[in-house]
Amino acid sequence: MEFSQGFIDAGPYRTRYMHAGSTPGDTSKPLLLLLHGTTGHAEAYVRNLAAHAEHFNVYAVDFIGHGYSTKPEHPLEIAHYVDQVLELIAALGYDSASLSGESLGGWVAARLAQLRPDKVDRLVLNTMGGTMANPVVMEQVYTLSMEAAKDPSWERVKARLEWLMADPTMVTHDLIRTRQMIFEQPDWQMACEMNMALQNLEIRKRNMLSDDDLRAIDAPALIIWTTKDPSGPVEEGRRIAEMMPHGTLAVIADAGHWPQYEQPEIFNKLSLDFLLENR
Q: Where are the beta strands (DSSP E) in 198-278?
């Protein structure tokens, strides 16, 4: 498919993006932002851009401290990512956007919808973070991420990616090399330490979404969970959907933490059916 990539100054945040759906500056299509997870990058959504670009002006972005975006030299908490997304919506010439977020991206999207309902049209929250603090999972994420940051060898980067997938064969050579190039940046070890802040229990606790926070999210929300998600069970996705006033749960079988990549046809249909409802 035809797409562009580059950088946009979103307030103080130099944000790297992959874009499809409209020519630059054309705001006739509604805006959809695709938000990746911890230590991830825009390529987490390469299998979703084409389908969504038929209906939306789509930007998959690198969070600050991730990919090729600005890498602040301080611990990154949810408020920092929320600020980046708000600045990005404004920089792209929109008043609001639909947000599709995986893991950390879902956490950020949900918090933004709670705090600034005027900025969010619809939410797709995909194996989202922010409601659980499992020390075992947090230790796995921290250890695999920091090992790969200190030694971005093929095998360590591959191990970090395999944690995401129900089927390890989904971790292609192309995906490994894409992430390895990011991890080979001179400032990546520092950046990884900063984006690992949310794996610290005390920091995580003060950023978590409470039940009252979830109840306060008024935007229509599709909660997507999987049968083999390593971060938490389907029951957590169901609980989140029940807490939100306009939440709906969809479960994808035989996928792990990246269903948008592992089962793109199913994910794209679920996502578009929801995002285009009543349009």
A: 221-226, 247-252
Neighbouring residues of 57: CB distance < 8 A, sequence distance ≥ 6: 19, 21, 22, 26, 27, 28, 29, 30, 31, 32, 92
pLDDT per position as a tens digit, 13-39: 999 999 999 987 888 999 999 999 999
Number of domains in the chain: 1
pLDDT of residue 279: 75
The helix or strand, by DSSP H or E, that contains position 194, with its residue range, turns out to be helix 188-195
State the pLDDT at residue 1: 83
Grouping H, G, I as helix, E, B as strand and the rest as coil, residue 205 is helix
CATH number at residue 231: 3.40.50.1820
What is the torsional sign of CA 144, 40, 1, 226?
positive
Task: State the DSSP H helix or E strand holding residue 220, giving kind and residue range, or none if neither.
Answer: none
User: Is residue 98 a part of any domain in this protein?
Assistant: yes
The answer to whether 102 and 40 are in contact (CB under 8 A) is: yes
Residue 181 within any structural domain of the chain: no
Q: Within a 10 A sphere around the Cβ of 273, how many other Cβ atoms?
A: 11
Condensed to tens digits (0 to 9), the pLDDT of residues 222-267 reads 999 999 999 999 999 999 999 999 999 999 999 999 999 999 999 9
Task: Give me the count of residues in the chain.
Answer: 279
Q: Is residue 162 part of a domain?
A: no
pTM, entire model: 0.97
Residue with tokens 């009252």, as numbered in its chain: 212
Range of the structural domain that residue 109 is part of:
4-132+209-275
Residue 204 lies in a domain: no
